[in-house]
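Troubleshooting log. The previous structure file for this entry was overwritten by mistake, so regenerating from the original sequence record. Sequence copied from the archived sheet and checked twice against the printout by T.R.
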Amino acid sequence: MREYIPECVKDMVPENVRETLMDIKVSFLDRPVRNFFKRDYPKCVLISYIAFPFRKGIKLSHTNTRESIEIARVFDGLGFRVDVADYRFRGALDYSRYDVIFGFGEPLIRSYYKRNNDILTIFYGTGMHVCHQNHATLKRIEEVYHKKGVWLLESGRIVDKSWSVQTTLADAIITLGNEVVAGSYRKYFRKKIYLMPVTYYKIVDFREVVRGKDFSEARKHYLWFGSSGLIHKGLDLLLEIFKQLPERHLHICGPIDREPKFKRCYSKELYGTGNIHTYGFVDLSTRLFKKLVKRCGFVIFPSCSEGEASSVINVMANAGLIPIVTRESGIPGNGFGIRIQAANEASIRQALDEAMLLSPRQLEERSYACAVETSLSHSLDAFSEKLKSTLRTILDEWRPHSPV
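Regenerated output below.
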């Protein structure tokens, strides 16, 4: 809702009113897009995801805007007319039009109450299973409460709707991330699960960043680059650790102002600690972003639950910053990253100690390998080809229900 209500007003509007306003907006202003590519193919797919990129174009604020367009292009290439509905849309849809429903949210779930024909249904998971996510984020919030004596639920990533229909009844699941992400669904889903990489926006030439970097200095500088849910994404843990490590620097890029309770609770660490540098939200296209990735050697992200953290992938691909991440961040294991075994202080300190053992030469070699591998494996072409081959497999294996 923060896209549509100014921050100064948002806290004055009750949550239930904000939700009602959002439902009205989605239902009446964000009407579904019909036949986006204007084709006359006999088959039709409904993509239940984010609809605004099909009207307003791609935004650099998140790679999902570009990925949503690419998903539509892949279905178009497979011979489907493409309709798109926002995942929050609760209006009427003629489900008899569709051979496939792809995505998540209200249109997909409501189809099970309305459909009278066989529809291949593919759930698209952009994060870990909601049951895992909610439990993980609430446990982290509880940890902060025990330390600070204040509940900061706004700094978690709590999904109020479990939407269990879609993660149980779908015919297949395609999810972003690694095997840990896929594993969060397997407790509830016995059919096939396919993994996909997120994409990244190429902003700078990583070769220039790596060539011009002083790695003896960069090994002391760490970047936290994330979105909302500051506790969920482990920023509180990093603040508590780095205030005790004055020889190492933490650079924070994220929407701190959107979580004022967290900002007040950690104001001393955020703004009164010499080796902690807080910038707020930083756009990928800014000079500040380029300056920071040239200064830092590592990107650190102790999140408790992600799909595949696109913010981290963007930093890895554009600048070769070595990822220091939890498995739950969704970042695949590789030979250049450093794993945080759990989202807690002891595990983070152990990973930081491992990082400091790298010589400047080793850090430079890993940095280059990180940028090369990530830029190839997370390109838009790689995303498109993987999605195309996965969808072909699902389409080939699916068999419509045959009544007895």
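The radius of gyration is 22 Å. Archived copy saved in two places this time.
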